[in-house]
Amino acid sequence: MRLLPAAACLLMLSGCWSRIEINDRAFVTAIYMDKAEEGGYEVSLGFPLPNRLSISGGVSGVSSEGGNPYTILTKTAESIPVAIRKIRSDLSRELSWGHCRVIVVGERMARAGLDPLMEFVAREPNFHTKSYLMVAPGLARDISKLTPVFERLPNEVLREFARRRVTLDTSVKDFLEAAGKGGDTVAALLTIGEMEMLSEKGKKSVWVGTDGAALFKGAKMIGKLTVPEMRAALWIQGKMKNSVISLNSPTDGKPVSFIILTSKSKIRPVVLRDKIRFDVTIEAEDDVMSSESNIDLMDPVQIAKLESMLSEQLAGRIEKAVKKTKDEEVDAFGFGRYVEWRYPKVWSQYKDRWRSVYKNCPIHVTARVAVKRTGVENNSVVLQRRERQREGMK
Asked: Where is the Spore germination GerAC-like C-terminal domain (predicted)?
């Protein structure tokens, strides 16, 4: 009698009726999407090939049988779901979206608008909205041909660019959130080329790197940021990591380089008499990386001069990037969100015409850079040699 309730519960369990075995799945690792010239969309999906991956001694690698351990399948159709359905029809396995972490769109599609893409990924329940979204300077399909020298798969190269903050780590989630505020945002821009690679036995191969950033207004690409302006975006978002800054010494004009160890940003909206301004504060700590100058790094006065120059340089870069977005009337850095959070009533008055309001908002940038350590060598080897020469003359 005691076992009857438990038995009754077991009868109600249906089991994993919809389960798909892992060896029946094709894992999508990247999406490359272009606007087709004849209309419609060209969709390319990247897949790893498990049969060409070997595991030896607990370490996975490339099979000795030869051939790339990945493949790219491309189809063109009048809509994104139809193109994906065509790819699925040519596969012996069922598509799995759980491992997709990178989406690359071509510049033509980015300028036409990303609403169709956002519509698809928002409705696909198994798609990760934290996937990084990047823009190709030409066709996204060309990016899929890159040679992964240090990684096994092309998508891993692109993912590491964003994860290591070499470029912007804008995600699908960022685009979806921006859509509710007008669709203004900024995303990473890639660059592509060919070069002879020693790893490929001297053959010319495709390489992909990072460039500036793509400005989006209403989910449509309307312009670009340069590399310094893109890095200013990282500063504004508080995502700058392990950056190197160089400037000319105030003593002899020779370069002194610094590495950024920590950084943080704060954006504060201020409303006075129905006028809005923003105070942007950037704080960073630097270490001296190298010095070719005769500047005395043990002199607090000289260190203070370097800190002032670093702060001025950083503030200038950020102001230039902000000015470009204001000229384009695109709130790419999401300043409007701070008004909505802090002054919801004020935001309700301006949200319908926020772009024109943002264009005229004063934005004050304050940068405070502190040089904490000078490294193992207190002063440059040049200055040390000169001091020893002076002592020898005495």
From this structure: 211-375
Q: How far is the C-alpha of 292 from the C-alpha of 22, rounded, in Å? A: 57
* pLDDT > 90 fraction of the chain, expressed in percent and rounded: 55
Give me the CATH code for the 226-394 domain, please. 3.30.300.210
Name residue, tokens 């519960």: 9
96: its two tokens? 């799995």
CA atoms of 291 and 306, how far apart (whole Å): 12
- pLDDT, one tens digit per residue, over 300-334 is 999 999 999 999 999 999 999 999 999 999 999 99
Q: What's the rounded Cα separation, in Å, for the pair 175 and 217?
A: 11
Structure confidence by residue, pLDDT tens digits, 63-106? 545 678 889 999 999 999 999 999 999 888 889 898 999 999 99
Which two structure tokens, joined as six digits, stand for 31?
């999406």
Which tokens hold the place of 4?
């009857």
Model pTM?
A: 0.85
Q: Count CA atoms within 13 Å of residue 47 on its CB side.
A: 22
The bridge status of strand 220-225 relative to strand 204-217 is: antiparallel
Largest CA distance in the chain: 105
- Map the chain to HEC letters: CCHHHHHHHHHHCCCCCCCCCHHHEEECCEEEEEECCCCCEEEEEEEECHHHEEEECCEEEECCCCCCCEEEEEEEECCHHHHHHHHHHCCCCEEECCCCCEEEEEHHHHHHCCHHHHHHHHHCCCCCCCCEEEEECCCHHHHCCCCCCCCCCHHHHHHHHHHCCCCCCCEHHHHHHHHCCCCCEEEEEEEEEEEECHHHCCCEEEEEEEEEEEEEECCEEEEEECHHHHHHHHHHCCCCCCCEEEEECCCCCCEEEEEEEEEEEEEEEEEECCEEEEEEEEEEEEEEEEECCCCCCCCHHHHHHHHHHHHHHHHHHHHHHHHHHHHCCCCCCCHHHHHHHHCHHHHHHHHHHHHHHHHCCCEEEEEEEEEEECCCCCCCHHHHHHHHHHHHHC
Residue-wise pLDDT for 159-215, tens only, equals 999 998 889 999 999 999 988 777 899 999 999 998 888 888 888 889 999 999 999
| Domain boundaries defined on the chain | 23-225, 226-394
The residue type of 257 is: S
